[in-house]
Predict the structure.
Amino acid sequence: MGAAILHQSQAQGHKTDDLPRELIRNARSTPRTAFTASKHLSFPPSKISTFADIDQPNTGISDTAVSEPFLLFSPEAIQQMRAEAFSEEVLEHHYSPTSKTGGMIRGHCSGRAPFIYDAWASPELLKIVPDIAGVDLVPAMEYDIGHVNVSVPNDSADPSLETAAQDEVEDAEKI
């Protein structure tokens, strides 16, 4: 009988139950800092190719065809963004699961994620992106600034991917 008695939130589940606990723990243990462009941006790509460079006609609005892959944000910036995106308040109010292995986080900037908002709104970043694209670009919808797609492996054999839902089942079985 004890295993059948679950807290109401456990019985209904929580929208973050399928996220790995380790992902959330690591994000929440990151000491917070303010965004600094010189420290947190990582630019430029090693090469930007034009349509002429790849022997293709330019029928678009920009001469840019493609850039080499590059890291836009420093590893420390990525940790800061994860800390904000996976904070309890952001997950509670802005996370929408879209599958068993992920979801999306949006609408959390600027109030609940100042680092992410400041990064995407910085004049330095607002210059970098158009320089790569070869055309003027600006954020069109503030609601989508800092949009995060969350995708996690669906591998129950990996203990680091233990989820809250699994934790609750194990706890209920102990009762």
User: Anything to note?
Assistant: Residues 1-12 have pLDDT under 50 and may be disordered. Strands lie at 48-50, 64-67, 95-99, 102-105, 148-151. The first strand starts at residue 48 and ends at 50. The chain has one domain: 14-170.
